[in-house]
Amino acid sequence: MKKISLLLLIALAGFMIKANAQDQKAESFTGATAHKKHYQAVYQLNNDDEKVIKATLKNINNALEDPRLKGKLEIELVVHGGGVAVFKKDKPYEQQLKDLQAKGVILAQCLNTMKERNISKEELFDFISFVPSGNGEIIIRQQEGWAVVHP
Amino acid sequence: MKKISLLLLIALAGFMIKANAQDQKAESFTGATAHKKHYQAVYQLNNDDEKVIKATLKNINNALEDPRLKGKLEIELVVHGGGVAVFKKDKPYEQQLKDLQAKGVILAQCLNTMKERNISKEELFDFISFVPSGNGEIIIRQQEGWAVVHP
Amino acid sequence: MKKISLLLLIALAGFMIKANAQDQKAESFTGATAHKKHYQAVYQLNNDDEKVIKATLKNINNALEDPRLKGKLEIELVVHGGGVAVFKKDKPYEQQLKDLQAKGVILAQCLNTMKERNISKEELFDFISFVPSGNGEIIIRQQEGWAVVHP
């Protein structure tokens, strides 16, 4: 009799665990499943609005931390136009940028923007890299198979 | 004599129909031709501006009704950041969203946004689905071959 | 002796040229390399803000002039929503548009926008082309392999 109760208990426990797992699955998402081993995305930042800059940096972090992409996502932040603000030494983004770089994020500044706005490399953080044009970079990356996100 | 007139008339009519068809073709567009059997696009909404929300919903409808894509286009609306407004019960978008859903549009809310903004699922329409991060969703979809539109 | 000096001079010159080339390479960029023979990108303009219109036209030029893409890049400018302003006869963009068209840029106006806003073709420059919907155009192009840029 005890044996049967134990078996019933185990069966019940098993049922509850399974039901719970299904609930979680139903709740978690009905979106995309990540089948690839490696993901690549270029983020475009062309706005000096503090809200947009902060949202962009946060969005990149959210993508990197997405359980479906964690450890599998390579990102490049391409900055052009007003977005150059994020790379300026007198702006407060140094630590956030270094944290992103430590996670493998490429930080790329458009050289055209610097010419057009008369900005010298000395005004920008010395750990960033440069591309001939931000727009060209965004196009080449996509044509190489990267996704694009414009927050 | 009558026979020849009739033949001429038929020929003339045929010529006119053809000329008219060519005019229409010349006028209609010089853009892309849809060769594929199935199209997929993810729409990004990350703005609480009423104009942007309305434009996004209208844009999705326009894409679904494009004669080149009608019946061949699958869409997912990915909402993150301020865009969460579109899914709030106290906002006036319920019917439009249900209409889109009836046309097969997936309605996906970013769970990160809800955590960051302390929004409970009870505040949102109960017919939407959830994704770990809106940014991850947009990236995975693109890397699976979906187009991306950010209105 | 003269011969040796000459050889040394040549060697020195060669070394300096090479060192200089490496400097330039190191400085130029750490971004993407363009391996393809032909690149294609669709630009989305859906804003009547003069700044956004000007930035979009400049961005297209910057992409076309990017040394990595020069002579290899095909662009279509897809205009919908408020963006229709750029094609209006009473706006000052005629010459810039003609210059872009001369560089092969396709200028495409969304017909849905014109219906919704009651705009006649007579109000727009006569050298542009039309697409059933701007959103459909952007999706079809991407699904055909084009990159997308939304300035």
TrEMBL record, chains A, B, C:
<dbReference type="Pfam" id="PF02635">
    <property type="entry name" value="DsrE"/>
</dbReference>
<dbReference type="InterPro" id="IPR003787">
    <property type="entry name" value="Sulphur_relay_DsrE/F-like"/>
</dbReference>
<protein>
    <submittedName>
        <fullName>DsrE family protein</fullName>
    </submittedName>
</protein>
<feature type="signal peptide">
    <location>
        <begin position="1"/>
        <end position="21"/>
    </location>
</feature>
<keyword id="KW-0732">Signal</keyword>
<dbReference type="InterPro" id="IPR027396">
    <property type="entry name" value="DsrEFH-like"/>
</dbReference>
